[in-house]
Amino acid sequence: MKNTPDLKERKDRVAPYLKELAASFLFDSFSEDFLKREGLDFMIGVPIPLAQEDLAAFAENGLPVVRLADNMALLCGADPQFPSAGSYLRYLARFFDEKLVDVLVEMGGRHLRDADHAKSAAYFRSALLLESSHQKALFGYACACREWYLSLDAETHAAQMQAFKDESTEFFEWCQTLYPEFGAAYYFLGYAYLNLGLYTKAKLTWDRFLTLTPEEEERQEIEDRLDQLKDPVRVEEGINLLLGGKLRDGLAILETYVHSEYRNWWPLHYYLASAYQALAYVDEAIEGFHKVLELSPSHIDSTRQLAELYALKDDGEKAEKYRRKVEILQQNREV
Asked: Which of 53, 56, 87, 81 has the alpha carbon at shortest distance from 69?
């Protein structure tokens, strides 16, 4: 991670979903004489973004600087890679002081409250282009992305949801990194980690949140969540021990969950079976991989491991059965 996020340099997950906003602008230009007279030579040849309703006024009497600045800020936020973005940011700096960032953040918040997700995100992004470490801009943008993906339908917008989930998580992390005493970022970041199945990270994040917030209602909410996380965190610890080569230590934890509410969670049985296989407990490994297939019939790696284990036991018939099943699963995956 760099010291601050750079919207002009980083891979932009969100710009593809702001194309409609960027494309809504039409363009005209200032006259060269006007620009030279006003000391704006850097704007010569630069297209000026206008909303449809701006066209007549711009052609007749021009537009107020505030209106032009608003259009430029929105376009820069929608597409930081727009060829004239640098000139627009210079124009903004020419007419406005550092309070412009606060104004853009306020506009982002206003559109967020109105559920205009595209404009909300664009205003926060334009604020970040001017001041990449601005706390309210970082947090507001993370919240805008979060609210946007929560508004989407998972079946029809899966890719877009994932893009905004990743973006919101990254910018909550920026808030946490740059402003370690800012509790609200930890609150939302804990939920982001929870949704990713990163239970230990969620726990550690919420533990920190509890040291930062005096709000009793939020404290109670997170304390309840932490109680619910005790077993997932313990299971994650066991899995990490297995992955780290500490097979017996990991088994000692995970075996206690075989008859718990996790008994129908196929990854538990997969990790157990893999550890048994590594320890040459062939029968236990076979039983475990069968349990995986009982819960997830198309799990190809468990099927492959069963073929290998039955071959070890010189059970050619069953080894061939599972080899054929692997071929069928691979063919189905390619269709």
From this structure: 87
